[in-house]
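Homework help thread (please don't just give me the answer)

Our assignment gives two proteins as sequence + structure token strings and asks us to describe the second one. The first is just a warm-up. Here they are:
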Amino acid sequence: MPIVYHKQFIQASVEECFNLARSVDIHTKTTANTKERVVGGVTHGLLNEGDTVTWEATHFGIKQRLTAKVTHMNKPAEFVDIMLKGAFSSFTHTHQFIEEKGGTIMIDTFEYKSPFGLIGRIADKLFLEKYMTRFIISRAKGLKAIAERNAKTASSCLS
């Protein structure tokens, strides 16, 4: 089972990073390159434990739907979502937020299992693991840009 692990330092509070990462509206902004949009479940605002959301996106030129459920939440340190329906056999995405001097370390751990047995494992090695790594990193960079822009705006308002 491949595991994508990514750490990102963000110059913003843990609370800000945590809330941006679980925002349905921000998710669509940080995944614009795959034309991700909400088609079911929670359609706006912040996801909470027990919530489900269905995304529609284009990956590898194919429009796909994926339903995920938030199964664990420890505000503002961690939340976990799992796939209920979608192209993978399964996935678990753990989002962690650790306060660090001057900001937050955001850690994504994305564990997935590809469908189709041996063919899926070959696809992982050939392209899928690299694709998912780029996807997770791209989203983290998008969250970083939004959080740091928000933090800068908030601090200039206080000056």
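The one we have to describe:
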Amino acid sequence: MNNGNPTLPETGGTGDVLPNMIGRRKFLSYVGLAASAVTVVACSKDKNDVPEGAINLGSGDIGILNYAYALEQLEAAFYTQVIASPYSGMSATEQALLTDIRDHEIAHRNFFKTVLSGNAIPGLEVNFSAINFGTRDSVLATAKAFEDLGVAAYNGAGQLITSADNLVLAGKIVSVEARHAALIRDLISNGSFADNTVVDANGLDVSKSPAEVLGVAKAYLKSVLYAGNLPTS
């Protein structure tokens, strides 16, 4: 963090870096987020019907920010593992790009933790037993699923945010997540930045409710999240 702004490090590509590497790296360029521009109100500490051992996300904008924080924790943990144990045959180009994404997700995670401060949920325990980190297909398919889910989550949560400042924050982050999603699709199949699985008939990105998103995400979490106090409209 630098004066409240997460700084995303750029990593230098080596080896078989593609001629258009610089363009792809710029494609992932990060929009700075100023913590001072975010409105954080007191958490209501709602605990209605929270299952024993579950983590309560909270209510109102705090709940939505914790919801986003949970997803960023999941993505940061995934990409950290990807880079810690590169899959067989990972090229220098792919390692550089995936490292950039890892750094973005870590910055997002740390940003939410700082903004939420005492209202932040604890660190989550992940469950990646279904992912084969040794193969490119498994890693990129999972990355695609996580990025698509993240974009849909931010799109669905936007209408639930009451603070204009928080809405701007979500808009900045979802633009970065959308770049991630397009980049991963391009790595899987060059030129395939999006398709009808993530874009609806009106040409708009798909959106999902917190209940839908967490229903998918829970397969990759040991921690149990309770979203019963999140706004629904």
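TA reply:
I won't write it for you, but here's a hint about the kind of observation we're looking for: The first helix runs from residue 21 to 27.
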